[in-house]
Design a protein that fits this description.
Layout (H helix, E strand, L loop, with lengths): L6 H32 L3 H29 L3 E5 L9 E6 L5 H10 L6 E3 L1 E2 L8 H7 L4 E2 L4 H6 L2 H17 L5 E5 L7 H7 L12 H10 L3 E10 L7 H5 L5 E9 L14 H30 L1
Parallel strand pairs: 1-8, 2-6, 2-7, 3-6, 4-5
Antiparallel strand pairs: 7-8
Length: 300
């Protein structure tokens, strides 16, 4: 444990280890991804995709290693026992910080299949990481607002097509599809601007999870509903690197896939959209209450 070091020095060491881990594994990923690109046959994909997953899991283990070396974090986790690394899952979580991704990857690595995130389209230009996300088939989505889609309804179909194309790849080998229902990180400013009815959450957006259920709902073994709580406040990335992530509470609940919402036409049917809205609103009410309880317990 290096947590006794001054925070700036600890942050520099953590950042260096993070960068070295990225620079080691991404070129390895790209070698196999380029082979798959040159030979775009299903048999090649079935051979290479599991190798890419193994590489990504080793990469995540490397992150867990430097986190253990530089962090003195108390982990309070429930609900991750008994998960199947060979099953398909739809994973949903609240979202407060970039640190959430490290938390999720650390806890779920090799417990369930590799988490595949829907990435904002502009992030494909991020140096090195954009290539890694492409190699791992993370789908790049434009994520148009509902207001934009009302003015340009033709773009709604393009979002659906992109999701379906991504989910066709996900269906080949066990995959965990990761979705943040809020669509963005929680901040007090966003919460106030939205006039969110929830105390600890932004308003949920059902579109992404609806598209995933529509495209491959029959594949999912369960929906893993994840609640992440930072009792000392959500850390920014600098705080995280500097070893200031003191406590993390995570609760994972396995929920059945709602059969009445699978294979439904979210984009074209108003009744389906209303049913999805009611389902996610109830999910969010329960999560908001759970966060309040966990925070109250942590203060005792």
């Amino acid at each position: 444990m290096l947590n006794f070091l001054p925070a700036p020095l600890l942050g520099a060491i953590a950042f260096l280890l993070l960068a070295l881990n990225v620079l080691f594994w991404v070129p390895v990923l790209l070698v196999f991804a380029v082979v798959r690109l040159i030979l775009p046959f299903k048999i090649v994909r079935l051979a290479i995709d599991p190798l890419l997953v193994k590489i990504a899991e080793a990469w995540i283990s490397g992150n867990s290693g430097w986190m253990a070396l530089t962090q003195r974090t108390a982990w309070d986790v429930e609900g991750v026992a008994g998960l199947d690394p060979q099953g398909w899952y739809l994973v949903n979580s609240n979202h407060q910080s970039w640190v959430d991704i490290f938390v999720l990857q650390h806890l779920f690595n090799r417990r369930i299949p590799l988490l595949k995130f829907f990435i904002k389209d502009q992030l494909k230009w991020v140096p090195v990481m954009g290539l890694a996300w492409w190699a791992l088939d993370f789908p790049f989505m434009r994520r148009h607002s509902e207001e934009y889609l009302k003015l340009h309804p033709e773009m709604r179909g393009k979002d659906q097509a992109a999701t379906r194309k991504a989910c066709e790849k996900f269906a080949l080998i066990p995959t965990s599809v990761m979705n943040f229902l809020e669509g963005t990180r929680f901040t007090p400013a966003k919460h106030a601007r939205q006039q969110s009815p929830y105390r600890h959450l932004l308003k949920p957006k059902a579109g992404g999870i609806a598209l995933a259920l529509n495209a491959m709902g029959d594949k999912f073994r369960a929906i893993l509903d994840v609640t992440i709580v930072y009792p000392d406040g959500a850390p920014d990335f600098r705080d995280f690197l500097c070893g200031r992530l003191r406590r993390v509470i995570v609760r994972v609940q396995s929920l059945p896939v709602p059969a009445h919402l699978m294979n439904s036409d979210y984009a074209g049917d108003a009744a389906t959209r209303e049913a999805f809205a009611k389902w996610v609103q109830q999910l969010w009410q329960d999560k908001d209450a759970q966060i309040e309880r966990l925070l109250a317990q942590a203060r005792r």
